Here is the input.
Amino acid sequence: MDNETKVLQLMKEAGKPVSAGEIEKVCELDRKAIDKAFKNLKAQGRIVSPVRCKWQPA
Here is the structure.
């Protein structure tokens, strides 16, 4: 499973908007990998930010 898929899955499981820090606490990925996954997912339109610094699946 690639980092983007893993991050998106964790977001879905959370059931609420989450920050990169919250994702980092529940998985073994480092912050740089999470930030890169967020950037790619945002560019693909797969996540949205309903509040500042928090993201959820689109």
